[in-house]
What we know:
The chain has helices at residues 22-38, 58-73, 88-92, 95-99, 133-139, 147-162, 280-284, 307-318, 333-340, 345-357, 363-382, and strands spanning 2-6, 14-15, 19-20, 43-46, 77-81, 103-106, 117-120, 123-128, 167-173, 207-211, 217-218, 226-228, 244-252, 255-263, 268-274, 292-301, 322-330. By secondary structure, it is an alpha/beta fold. The strands form four sheets. Strands 6-5-4-1-13-14 form a six-stranded mixed β-sheet.
Amino acid sequence: MRILHIADLHAGKRLYDRIGRNEDLLYALEQIKNICKEERVDILLIAGDVFDKRNPDFESQGLIMEFLTEMNALGLHILLIAGNHDSYDFMKIYKNLRKLANIHVFDRPSANLKESIFQYEQLKVACLPYPDERVLTHFDEERQRSYAEKVANYMRALAHEVEDSRYRVLVAHMMVDRAQIAGSELQSSVSPYYAIKAETIPDTFQYVALGHVHRNQRIEGIAPKVYYSGSPYQIDFSEKGMDKFVNLVVLEDGMAKVEPIRLDLKRQLVEIRLKEGEDIQKSLEPLAKENLLVRVVMEVKMSDPFFQQKRDAVFRILGDRLARLEIEPVGTFQETKAETGKMDLLSLYEDFHRFKYRSEPSEDLKALLQKLIDKVSHETHKA
Ligand SMILES: [Mn+2]
C-alpha cells in the first residue's frame, strides 16, 4: 500500500497582506498530482492547515476543491484533518458530500473514537485533527491533567482502536517537543508550552504523519517513524532557503518505508542586507533575473541626503520581486548630531520620523516624547 503524506498548504496565504501565494501552492499541487500518478499512490494524507485563515477566500476554497476532486479522479482516497489554522466548522461543511468522492474529512477530535478511524484494506488510519484544549477538556473528566497528558491519553486510546489491523498509521496536527521549528509556526496559538512529548506517541503506529511544523523532518530518538512532511512551499521569510518535500510511505512486509521527495519551488524567498555605502545596483541586479521574492534590509544613515533615491532604486531594480523593504537607520547619536547640527532629542526624533514614515510626527506624539524626555532627565538628575 502506498501513501503520500503532505501538510500545511496554507491556501490563501498572503505575505505582508499584499502578495498572494496561491500560485506557489498550485505549482506544488501540480507536482503532488504527478507524484501520485507516477508512484501509484493509494491514499493521500493531508495533515492539517489546508487553509491559512479560518474563513478562507473563495479563490482558495475553489483551488483546494479543484485539487481534491482531481485527486479523486486518479482513483485514490484523500484524508484531510483540520489544523490550528483551519476552522472546525468550516472543515465540516459538505463532509458527507465529499465522502462520495472519497474525500474523508476529520474536522475535530471526536469523543467517539470509531469516528476517528479510516479503514482501507489492511490499513487503519487514526486521525487526530488539531486538538484544541477546550475540546479535549470536554472528553476528560480529570481536569488537573496537563494539555500534553490529555493528548497523550487520547493518542493511546486511538492506538488501542487500530491494534487489530496489520498496518497502523496516525495522522495528527500538533507540536512535538523535539521538532526543529521553522519559525512561521510561532504566530499560531500553539506555544511551546503545548508541545507534546515525543515519547508519548504510541509505538503501535508504524508511521505517524504530522502537520504543524513547516520543516520536513523525522523526530529523532524515538522508535516509531514520526515525520513532519513540512509545508510544500516556503510560506514566509522564516522558511527562506529551506528545501521542501512530500513523504512517500510504502507499507509492505509489516513495516513502513519512508522516502521524502523534494519539490521544485515556483519562487524562492530570499533576504538581502544592503550595507551603508554598498552599490545597490550591483548587489540587486543578479536577483532581478531569478524567480524570487526578496526582502531587502537597507542600512541608511539618518542624515543621508540620497535616501529617497536609494529607496527608489530598490523598487525600480526588483519590481514585483520586492516583497518588503526594511529601513535600518545606522550611525551613532553623536555622528547624527555632528552631521545635522541638531542638539535636542525631540528635533532628532522629528528627523527620524520624517525619514522613516515620510510624514511629520503628530503633536500628540511630540508631546508624549517631550514628557518622556523630561521624565528621564529628571530621574537621571535625581540619581
Ligand atoms: Mn501550518
